[in-house]
């Protein structure tokens, strides 16, 4: 498990350079005392490992920029990919406050040649806009959701795709969460496209930290959402991380068919394929303890496998 004694650790993502695994994670000082305050103090830390169990913390990857900037409040969740020319791209969420105090999220990136020294590109490359995506003007939510970029190459070699935590401009407020979508020819310029899922009366208010992978030949989408941010029909299912089987990595994703992969004690489930044997593993952060309080820290790897039509965590 990876944790820090002086900080809360929560959302995270991986990169594999062929020799070491790299863990990028959000963290904030426990001196804040209130774990809910961590979101507006988040920086992106970095740790490395050769076995996915023992981790060594190294220099931080990114911190917020000076105001005024799209990331002058905090740097939030993202993903890392490598361009064919060898450049690493770290896509991340920039958080800032609108004049009315509500949170606005946009997506930017930084580049590196060694996964340790990162240079921000400047301003955001994507933000929420109509006609497909809800913005603050709707007044339906406490923020303008447009975060958690998950970037991967097109399976047919046609550029790159990004999955985004977003909300549709229509539908029930608690079922309006969708998988936003953007495309790029080069990782630098991005074209916003329509969502890869639809809002639903049997859905979720937000589909956080989406990831899509082909696990043992079968595409599967992961996202996270708690009871309090889901439709009434989802309440009581105690899902933390959810899974959706798909026809391809580009969906379409039938969010109404989502099933829980973990309960609410674990959140932000991430899949990673172990290099040594090809085993797919699930990681998550510890969300709440038995007393209902926030815990934090990234779990050790948990093997997953298909049982019928569902991906499940294999218990030892």
From TrEMBL:
Under the heading Gene3D superfamilies, the entry gives: Glycosyl hydrolase domain, family 43
- Identify the Pfam families for this entry: Glyco_hydro_32N
Judging by the UniProt lineage, the source's domain of life is: Bacteria
Per the record's keyword annotation, is Hydrolase included, yes or no?
yes
Keywords, comma-separated and alphabetical: Glycosidase, Hydrolase
Domain Glycosyl hydrolase family 32 N-terminal per the UniProt entry, residue ranges? 19-225
Query: What InterPro entries does the database record attribute to this sequence?
Result: GH32_Enzymes, Glyco_hydro_32, Glyco_hydro_32_N, Glyco_hydro_beta-prop_sf
The EC number of this protein is 3.2.1.26
SUPFAM superfamilies of this UniProt entry?
Arabinanase/levansucrase/invertase
Give, as one word, the top-level EC class: hydrolase
Its family remark reads:
Belongs to the glycosyl hydrolase 32 family.
Its protein name is beta-fructofuranosidase
What's the source species for this entry?
Microbacterium gallinarum
